[in-house]
Design brief:
With 456 residues, the chain is α+β, with helices and mostly antiparallel strands. It has 2 domains: 315 residues, Vaccinia Virus protein VP39 (Rossmann fold, 3-Layer(aba) Sandwich); 112 residues, DNA Methylase, Chain A, domain 2, CATH 3.90.120. Helices cover 23% and strands 19% of the residues. The chain contains 13 helices and 18 strands. The strands form 4 sheets. A 10-stranded mixed sheet has the order 5-4-3-6-7-9-8-11-12-10, sandwiched between helices. The chain has a 3-stranded antiparallel sheet with strand order 2-1-18, with no helix packed on it. A 3-stranded antiparallel sheet has the order 13-14-15, with no helix packed on it. Strand 11 and strand 12 form a beta hairpin. Helix 2 crosses helix 13 and helix 11 packs parallel to helix 12. The protein binds S-adenosylmethionine (SAM). S-adenosylmethionine binds next to helix 2, strand 4 and helix 4.
Length: 456
């Protein structure tokens, strides 16, 4: 494991694109961890997974007692900046963790209308991040569901791995400038595989060059009790002077199922793989530091909360405005019956029997397919009871883990894109808890503030 360097003076670093880093041109780097550290042999002292691991780390909040339960007081809270804030999926998780959001930014008018309606406009800055990056408030935690913009589009002349001019570069510059203790990022699954992993390697390399340990994990919304097959990659950065090298996105039970090689790497007995030598899709979990990484596909997700079927969150008596058009119904009459479960999604029929062909009609016994920002009657078709219709905006909210009226500040037709783009709050919540090492009973609970008493 890469040894953290406590007491090291804080350095300001400027983000440099990968052609300046060792990923592109430097010699391969061998990283060896000190053999004294046993990442996966930590005693678990609490009832919840990983609680022992996490409790002995740094949640610098005093424990307080409210009616016999323990809470973390809101003050002093982690100051949080939420980039690409959308409708505040990360904001809900940060609020639940007792963090104080001091700066949020998004360029979408509708997203900002919703955000201001739900959380107030004090911290919110509407506009292009590139125009506001100099105004980002000082923060300890940065969260961002950053747009997945291929580096190649901005850097054609400079090679496909050059992130200059992209929103990722802006994000990395803000992290280099503010050096938050933690950052949590979310993106689409294909980030792991784009350009045979080169894109993701560049991202990891950029953050490790800024002296962060970066852990990632591919998670699915359906493992957080939500009726949706939605895989998203989360990256958690911990500033190296704070990092103990223990994975936070794997429970103790998950860790125990890693291969002997990965465990030996975490334990410091094996050399990590240089990022510069990786040439393929990255596995679903990994940890990178010092331009090298260890990674594999975990076999379990022990914190899994089983989802309810889609039918359990659907409304009855839905307005006919959500029904298929007559021409769609005619086309469906020519469809081929499928009637099978694909990745947990019930597929009833489609046009020529393929898995992803046009005019697919979904059932409600399983999960919803990934909700997207292109929702319309032309793409999302469900048979719900006797009705053929698309999902309503309220059903979108539920499937994504928001309250029914979260986007009530904008007309219903404009809510789909906002929900489709959002990070599901239950996923963000799990990741933030894990990264901040908060155990269940340390999470802020509604209305607890007035009655806080210091524990003795
Ligand atoms: C994947 S979504 C993030 C959604 C958010 N995590 C949520 O829970 O709603 C990306 C967001 O980035 C915003 N965005 C795209 N380009 C931007 C830019 N140049 N400056 C600021 N925001 C931008 C979009 O409007 C969108 O809301």
């Amino acid at each position: 494991m890469i040894e953290p360097r406590p007491g090291r003076p804080r350095r300001r670093r400027t983000f440099r694109p990968s052609h300046d880093t060792r990923l592109a041109h430097g010699p391969p780097i061998q990283v060896r961890a000190p053999s004294s550290r046993r990442a996966y042999s930590v005693q678990q002292t609490g009832p919840r997974r990983g609680a022992g691991v996490r409790d002995r780390r740094t949640v610098n909040a005093q424990r307080v007692v409210v009616g016999g339960n323990r809470y973390v007081p809101r003050v002093p809270a982690l100051r949080t900046a939420e980039l690409f804030s959308g409708i505040g999926g990360f904001r809900l998780a940060a609020d639940a963790a007792g963090a104080e959001t001091v700066w949020a930014n998004d360029s979408s008018r509708d997203a900002c209308l919703v955000y201001a309606d739900r959380f107030g406009s004090t911290a919110l800055v509407e506009g292009d991040l590139r125009d506001h990056k100099n105004g980002v408030a000082s923060h300890d935690l940065l969260t961002a569901g950053f747009p997945c913009q291929p580096f190649s589009s901005a850097g054609k002349k400079r090679g496909v791995r050059d992130p200059r001019g992209t929103l990722f570069a802006e994000l990395a510059e803000i992290i280099a400038e503010h050096r938050p203790k933690f950052f949590v990022l979310e993106n689409v699954k294909r980030l792991l595989s784009m350009e045979q992993g080169a894109h993701f390697a560049t991202i990891l390399d950029a953050f490790t060059a800024l002296d962060y340990a970066v852990e990632w994990r591919l998670l699915n919304a359906c493992d957080f009790g939500l009726p949706q097959n939605r895989q998203r990659i989360f990256l958690a950065g911990i500033r190296r002077d704070l990092s103990d090298g223990i994975p936070r996105l794997l429970s103790k039970a998950d860790l125990a199922t890693l291969s002997p090689e990965s465990r030996a790497s975490l334990d410091g007995r094996l050399i990590w793989t240089p990022l510069s030598s990786h040439r393929s899709r990255f596995p679903a979990w990994g940890l990178a530091s010092g331009h090298a990484f260890v990674a594999e596909n975990p076999r379990i997700f022990s914190d899994r909360v089983a989802p309810s079927p889609l039918r359990d969150v659907l409304l009855s008596d839905v307005d006919p405005v959500f029904d298929f058009t007559a021409s769609t119904i005619d086309r469906i009459a020519e469809s081929v019956s499928i009637n099978s479960m694909r990745q947990g999604v019930e597929v009833l029929s489609n046009q020529d029997g393929g898995a992803r062909m046009g005019y697919t009609v979904y059932g409600t016994a399983g999960l919803a397919p990934t909700l997207t920002c292109t929702a319309s009657r032309h793409y999302e078709r469900y048979r719900i009871g006797e009705q053929y219709r698309r999902l309503t905006h309220v059903e979108y909210a539920r499937i994504q883990g928001f309250r029914d009226d979260h986007c009530g500040a904008v007309p219903y037709g404009r809510q789909y894109v906002l929900y489709g783009n959002a990070v599901p709050p239950p996923m963000a919540d799990w990741v933030l808890r894990s990264v901040l090492a908060l155990s269940d009973d340390a999470i802020d609970h509604a209305n607890a503030d007035e009655t806080l008493q210091l524990a003795t």
